[in-house]
Design a protein that fits this description.
By secondary structure, the protein is mainly α.
């Protein structure tokens, strides 16, 4: 996926925020941040690695890293008596995993690394056009991304109107 990670994070966070109104802002913040967090490796990819390694091969695009990190944070929260914040760990982990699922549609993700180097993706986007991003924009999978944006926009607008109607916007 190319542009839909953020609205997908919004859509994933929304039901958790509705069930936990006192933590809604934190839930949306964590969900949105974590929905794009794996792509922070692009800074390393462009500035340091000089595009030598496909950025989906970095450790931040492997589920085991995020599972281990979420488990460590959850244990820390439990040990310090802050169980109420476990919802944030759950939303964060789900948002990161959603990012990886979405990447798996048209990019290689190593779901079983370090146990296996199997690369999983649904479709291969052929490099036909220049500049490179046109290959993604002109591929049928981009329609899924537009649909995710439209769906997120619909719910965001509906929620905004509902909040405005009750005077909390």
């Amino acid at each position: 996926m190319f542009i839909a990670h953020l609205p997908a994070g919004y859509l994933l966070s929304r039901p958790f925020a509705r069930r936990n109104p006192s933590q809604a802002r934190a839930i949306f913040g964590v969900g949105l941040l974590c929905s794009v967090l794996p792509d922070f490796d692009l800074a390393y990819f462009y500035l340091i690695d000089q595009r030598r390694t496909p950025h989906h091969d970095y450790w931040v695009h492997t589920p085991i890293f995020w599972l281990a990190l979420a488990a460590a944070i959850a244990l820390l929260l439990i040990a310090t008596g802050r169980r109420k914040q476990l919802v944030l760990v759950g939303v964060g982990l789900l948002s990161v995993l959603l990012h990886l699922v979405m990447d798996s549609i048209a990019a290689d993700i190593r779901w079983f690394f370090p146990f296996a180097d199997l690369r999983v993706n649904l479709v291969h986007v052929q490099a036909v056009y220049k500049p490179w991003y046109l290959n993604f924009i002109l591929h049928w999978t981009f329609a899924l991304e537009v649909l995710i944006w439209l769906l997120a926009g619909h719910f965001a607008l509906r929620d905004f109107r509902a909040r405005r109607a009750i005077g909390t916007a």
